[in-house]
Amino acid sequence: MHPQNMNINIEELVNLDFSISRVGVPTLDSPLKDVIFVGDSESITYCADRNINNELYASGKNVPAFVAAGPRKKLYHDATWTRAAIVTCGGLCPGLNDVIKALVNTLYYTYKVDNIFGIQYGYSGLNPSNGLKPIVLNPDIVDGIHTTGGSILGSSRGHQDTEEIVRTLDRLNINILFTIGGDGTQRGAHDIAVELKKRNLPVSVIGIPKTIDNDLCFMDKTFGFETAVQVAAPIISCAHNEAKGYLNGVGLIKLMGRDSGFIAAYASLANSLVNFCLIPEVQFELYGENGLLPALERRLARKQHAVIVVAEGAGQNLFQDDGEVTVDKSGNKLHKDIGILLKDEISLYMKSRNIDFSMKYIDPSYILRSTPANGMDSIFCLHLAQHAVHAAMAGMTDVVVANWQGNFTYVPTSLATRSRRKIDPRGQLWQSVLLSTRQNTDWPSKAAE
Amino acid sequence: MHPQNMNINIEELVNLDFSISRVGVPTLDSPLKDVIFVGDSESITYCADRNINNELYASGKNVPAFVAAGPRKKLYHDATWTRAAIVTCGGLCPGLNDVIKALVNTLYYTYKVDNIFGIQYGYSGLNPSNGLKPIVLNPDIVDGIHTTGGSILGSSRGHQDTEEIVRTLDRLNINILFTIGGDGTQRGAHDIAVELKKRNLPVSVIGIPKTIDNDLCFMDKTFGFETAVQVAAPIISCAHNEAKGYLNGVGLIKLMGRDSGFIAAYASLANSLVNFCLIPEVQFELYGENGLLPALERRLARKQHAVIVVAEGAGQNLFQDDGEVTVDKSGNKLHKDIGILLKDEISLYMKSRNIDFSMKYIDPSYILRSTPANGMDSIFCLHLAQHAVHAAMAGMTDVVVANWQGNFTYVPTSLATRSRRKIDPRGQLWQSVLLSTRQNTDWPSKAAE
Amino acid sequence: MHPQNMNINIEELVNLDFSISRVGVPTLDSPLKDVIFVGDSESITYCADRNINNELYASGKNVPAFVAAGPRKKLYHDATWTRAAIVTCGGLCPGLNDVIKALVNTLYYTYKVDNIFGIQYGYSGLNPSNGLKPIVLNPDIVDGIHTTGGSILGSSRGHQDTEEIVRTLDRLNINILFTIGGDGTQRGAHDIAVELKKRNLPVSVIGIPKTIDNDLCFMDKTFGFETAVQVAAPIISCAHNEAKGYLNGVGLIKLMGRDSGFIAAYASLANSLVNFCLIPEVQFELYGENGLLPALERRLARKQHAVIVVAEGAGQNLFQDDGEVTVDKSGNKLHKDIGILLKDEISLYMKSRNIDFSMKYIDPSYILRSTPANGMDSIFCLHLAQHAVHAAMAGMTDVVVANWQGNFTYVPTSLATRSRRKIDPRGQLWQSVLLSTRQNTDWPSKAAE
Amino acid sequence: MHPQNMNINIEELVNLDFSISRVGVPTLDSPLKDVIFVGDSESITYCADRNINNELYASGKNVPAFVAAGPRKKLYHDATWTRAAIVTCGGLCPGLNDVIKALVNTLYYTYKVDNIFGIQYGYSGLNPSNGLKPIVLNPDIVDGIHTTGGSILGSSRGHQDTEEIVRTLDRLNINILFTIGGDGTQRGAHDIAVELKKRNLPVSVIGIPKTIDNDLCFMDKTFGFETAVQVAAPIISCAHNEAKGYLNGVGLIKLMGRDSGFIAAYASLANSLVNFCLIPEVQFELYGENGLLPALERRLARKQHAVIVVAEGAGQNLFQDDGEVTVDKSGNKLHKDIGILLKDEISLYMKSRNIDFSMKYIDPSYILRSTPANGMDSIFCLHLAQHAVHAAMAGMTDVVVANWQGNFTYVPTSLATRSRRKIDPRGQLWQSVLLSTRQNTDWPSKAAE
After folding, report:
1. Cα distance from B373 to chain C (closest Cα, Å)?
2. Does the distance separating the beta carbons of D110 and C426 come in below 8 Å?
3. For chain A, what percentages of helix, strand and coil (3-state, to nearest 5) are there?
């Protein structure tokens, strides 16, 4: 019923352990006043359906639920002695600076922590061989940063030696490390937490998931996603103007989405000018009865223009397997460029059919990811950061802050990174996309993927 | 734990009946294919906390839950004979045209209903004495309307005779009526549904709640709210520029929020330039030890400028009770104008203290409510409309479409309008506002409201 | 032919002296390289018409022309010893920070002046009794300020004692004073220049005209104007949505324009949704045959909605003369509020005619003036500031930088402030407005003002 | 002194004939009232400098001047019998729909012409073999089109047979043809006018120059340019965020500008984040002492990030001449892709120097050109269209509407298309760019091109 998560089996969930690790027993009183504290047993049920939960309970099984996020009555870290560090890794994403600002403000004003450091250029800033010094952070420094995209700390991709990082944290006397990044980053954070534990170092490692593709597990949305969708809308309108501006004009926009087509799907919904939305979760062919190209030809014959949105990870089946797999510095499998392939194939096909056409290809990825967060996204970043600080001060570790059905949660890092969330082609989201694009008008076989 | 709804007692909820009325037994097969149908027993649990639900279940009590929204396998209304009407009532709100467009498209393309009418200027368009004719709607007509704010159907405030409306529906052979409006509108819709039932007329009355104040019961958010918050942000920046531009500059912005301060609170969070956020839920005084004016004076002495956001319903205690209560055409109690009062009182106070100051007052209400919906809000409108049509075709009635913790639900109209949602001053939202504005720096007594 | 300046008589111009005063003879070599220097005899012809100029020349008369702006080969001020000050006065205007930034950068990088001061809160910062200290400015400090509206220096209205200001400049060893402000400010700057000359103090006083109303003499446009017009457009759309959203809806927007209706006129042209544009230059009546109210009634009868844009200085004849004239701190005559008057009068009239209507009044003035400058405006600010610095370093004084028919000029301050530029009702601009609004459709007598 | 036009020699201008052709003697009275008519002898002086003009006049030479645009007292075409056609050709440009709308409204409301046709897809719509029918246009149809980018008529590139076009115009009884397009389009329009004259067909051919590169002769600016500059600004900010987001990050943006770097130059001025601006008018090398790549390396060593804006026509000397010259359908020489070349060369260079870097390449061309016009651009389109209609009704032909130093002019089509306007590297514009980017800090030899 919660359509975006159909691919996780409830039976499997019953056996997962959602409890959170700690670096030690929290014994200090929280300085927060007039606040409703959250007890450690408070939980956010995984499944919204009452019947399923009641049945599980009745049969003595565990009802899957996340630990509820929020301020704890008892803290582990003593603000006076606490030294917190913040690191941003991987690709840019709207809201990075909002998260940094809110972490600093919450540490400083709410918990009175005044030793806060920004690690430069991702994990590489924790490897002393790179010669990058931590930056001192305080509310004055971060005051206006949320109006700018990007990350004031800088970012980087790629693996750094875990032991080296841990040695650096130890040498810098860091008690809390906030890791803002995607699944690669959080897997790295998990390794750091494990290594810290091995050495008995009571350092809280708290992850704030950042994935503009919105594809992390056990969370409904991640920051930056809504902004990216919003920024895509006028660009799709431009592609539509270009398409309508010429006889048989085709506007082709490549959007982010390595393994999941969330941005492509939402952007298509937000902008009803899209005629074909192509995502990794739904395979398609170019030629033949069910091919995209003949469908495009039919569309052009009917309407003289077409707008196509393609997620970067779509149509990987269309590339000849040359045995090579390329990965980026973060270890992400590098996809063949479906945008260029489609652009070329459409041009060849139209020429072969002697159709006078006009092809316009737009790749706005960097524009979407380096823009500042919009209003609601900015608030979402604020809340994520507040909950991250609550978790940190209470001594939790190896945990990411997440959002489940409107509630903030804490999820063990290893669970959050175990797989990637995908669109269910039979679920509500994709059905809405099909209704909105009506791509099956010209591509009737599309439904049967 | 779900901070925005603390004011509803769980014990009371156990006894509420969330089941949905129908105009008849659905017996026709849905034309939808490759879709996951939602069963009538599927539900969305009210309370996210596992323990509370388990306890209720264990003690044999009802676990409160809403009926899950979504397409039903069996329909009541036959598309061929169905005549649907759409009416928009009350104040403008971003997304009205998105909802209208999505209703028309879903009726037309998904269910093949092609008799769709738009009622002009709210309920007054259903009173024949006003001489307003229904407009024929179809996908071509609504194609581009989502790029414009307002409502293509027009709206109106005020009560119309229920029996007259029912006679009109009967005469026009309307089987489905979609009512887009706030609590006044939905109470009217409930009356219509009751009257229809009395006359044994199988007309489905489906409400889509519209309240830019975001204050309806049993739903997390309503359409238009997020857009309003986003539009407020640059205007608050303008007020900040005006405030900083002059010695002891005060920028005062009045935002919507009759009984609940959600827009004021979210806008303050989205724009960290706000120094005082005043909402109806938190009473305050102007003068004396705990007064706003001395606090403002302290702030100006410290920083030489201040930005104040005030919800229109805040500070009603500051008006002398002259025994009169004024209501608008919809029966909403008309508030005294707190914006003007504050503007005047601040000026008087500063003059009396011989402080050189500059007061700038901005009331952007009409700008916020008549703007087009942004990307995510637009998608939200689409989903609300789709679920409204699913409910209608399945023969439900006297129901509104709502959203609970990320899931779409159907809520009996009488329950949705029974009271207004408010901000809990001890909950997370307000705590975030206090953290962000740090208004208690200069106004220490504020916390103890 | 140059329609906006028809109100200046060419015969009168022949006798005006457009030459620029200097504080001394420029003898130092300019450090600029690879640049085309501008000679002092280079001029920008006032009148674009060849025949008029030829005739004047043939008859031995002076052909009116401005001194051309641009870098001079010889400088008066020695960069090493130069101390420059910048002051912003009067109301906010988009681009203030752009001008400040470009002044600082041009002084610093182009001419190597590194003693630059910002005067706080307008001329009041030059009166030591106010206790305001100058701020040190350099390229780092001003680096990002252009992304924010307002003025980082702050502004103020009101007269300060000229001798006091001159004493302060002398005590601070200021050689160059840049005054950014409207006609009041520049009249003050002229007084300062006169007083400095009287005391034989070689201080260059260079004005950069700031008037969002775009009403200064001998210049085609001033910075901030184009941004204000652009920002008004979506707000007018909102008013249109409100107007169309209700039966007989009237959207009324008050825009700036004390004596000249340029913003109202341009905003009406930029947004073709305006039905009535009211400006100070064209008198009108409310009632009777030629009255606005009956015209509005006709419009509503025909179209059921109307959008009215009114400049703040329009319709002053409609107020009963109570003998009082009120002025603001800057000595500007305070207008009675035509926005409120129209709102009230329209409501009364419609009620008296038993017309069901909906009145929405928007006053976005502070939003227009405190917004950051848009792209082209920002470039315009940059060029104004560069030319201001060129003039200053060459030892000019008592001069403002202006723009005439696409060329930058230097105009004696006393000439620039001698009167206010107005719209010619028979000229091209107003004719375009009439074409665009077609307000004479319902208001036929309008043309004959 | 007018720096952007230094490349036109005043001596040469003296001998040019700026007079306008007509299809016949205008004898009908204009229906315009209360308007200041423009006489045919009224002119707009080419050179703003008084001395130059006086000298020319004194020595008996012609003072170069354009015919002033504006409404004429006497018309040639009779509104009742007039059939006007509008065609848009070449690449999209912000404001196309504004021009179309204003042409239709001015013809219809001002001159009462009600037979107006839109030619589909450029000149190809005038070749009957393409089977494209003209669209009927009227004020209702064009009412809202200005809110959308692109052209409602569609466009096309490429030559069509002139005689075929003339036969079509004759067969359709067209008396006035408005051609909206760049220099290829206007050269085609000139050929059409010549052919019409040869056949004694009194058809007015009026051009409205459209070149987003802003590179047409004898005009200061063309519509769409300012919007393109404005739209580029946030995209450059994104590139800056990407550049700062990674160690040695390089943000590279390719902007339009085939032969002239106006967009690149203005966008660099409007957004002070650009460090290197590369235009066709200033040659550069990649390697060696004066090379861009070593300069970039120096910049990165100093600041760890860099933003480069490159016009598409820049650096053509860097491509090995392979003897081939490729042209597009319009006959424009197709440039090698300098964006891709730079991206590849920078990457190779940095790798060869073992520098850890991050390269982000953005090509936003289609976004800039297909966006709707902003406020001032929209007004500019309106005025251009009004003047085009004035010219047409007065029976002028073989003419384009232009803008010279703030005044509207009529320029013979053959003169407007004789060469392309370029940036003078010693002029004010480029000097401002150098000041703003300070690219000579790391690239000292740059100034000496």
Report:
1. 12
2. no
3. 40, 20, 40
